[in-house]
Amino acid sequence: MIDIIIPTYKPSHYLVECFLSLQNQTLSFDRFKVTVVLNGDKEPYYSYIQATLEKFSFNYSLIYTEEKGVSNARNIGLEITNYPYILFLDDDDILTENYLVQIISRVKPNSVVVSNVFGFLKDINNPIRDYLSFDQAFQSTNLVRYRKYLSNSCCKLIPREIINNSRFDVSLFKGEDALFMFFLSHRISNIISTDPDVIYFRRIRPLSASRTKYSVSKEIGIGLQQQRRYTSLYIRNFTKYSFALYLSRILAVFKVILMKMKG
Fold first, then answer.
1. What is the pLDDT of residues 93-147, one digit of tens each?
2. 219 and 174 share a domain?
3. Residue 113's CATH number
């Protein structure tokens, strides 16, 4: 049983395509539920989402919170759902029809199942290779080697027992996904992939929240904030977490800071 959590803020027509990809899933509808969490301005968006959802047959619930932010919306989704597996789906993204049926079939204890990932601009018939794209299925206990698959919370199936009481850091403007997955990493023993034809398509929108650009000084401040979060978490639990994985995250943030300073 899978809980699909979709945070949304001022959604547009792309939401219909996201829902349609769920309607077309080959997995039985009684094995997953969609929870849409609208955050920020309520109307006309709540009515639009409700009317759109009524056109589909899968199980769903629509929740509203006036507090803006994808992290808060995902946390609310985690609080009000109870199925044993979690899939975070962005409201403008699309899943292949075989997505849910295969990703649930690969589940093993203490493991995260990841799918293939491609980007797209107008439609999925013209896919753009992503840094998470792969050509062959894989399985590994080496989290450091496959750390890029822990850089975001989407594109994967996460057992609720791995998430436990962990939640997204709502104070971060960027990088909350990677921090959340690092938070979970000490409970993850294995990363398993689907077949390459099981694809999470990420819509490339210049104005989306994940692509918002800030001033150089703010970008640097965000990076330093991320480093403090990682370091605080690691120091408090250094016997649980991999130092190599922690170091890779710190270096990744540092690299971004340097790029912003040079740019």
1. 999 999 999 999 999 999 999 999 999 998 899 999 999 999 999 999 999 999 9
2. no
3. 3.90.550.10
> Is 109 in contact with 121 (CB distance < 8 Å)?
no
| Residue 82, SS3 per DSSP | coil
Domain that holds residue 151: 2-206
Q: How far, in Å, CA of 262 to CA of 182, rounded? A: 28
Closest CA to 115 of 128, 133, 97, 127: 133
Residue with tokens 């075989």: 98
* Residues 111 and 49 both lie in one domain: yes
pTM (2 d.p.): 0.93
Are residues 126 and 250 part of one domain?
A: no
Do 224 and 202 have their domain in common? no
Q: What does the longest C-alpha to C-alpha distance in the chain come to?
A: 52
Compute CA distances 93 → 60, 111, 155, whole Å: 17, 24, 10
Say if residue 20 is exposed, middle or buried (CB neighbours under 10 Å; 0-12, 13-18, 19+): middle
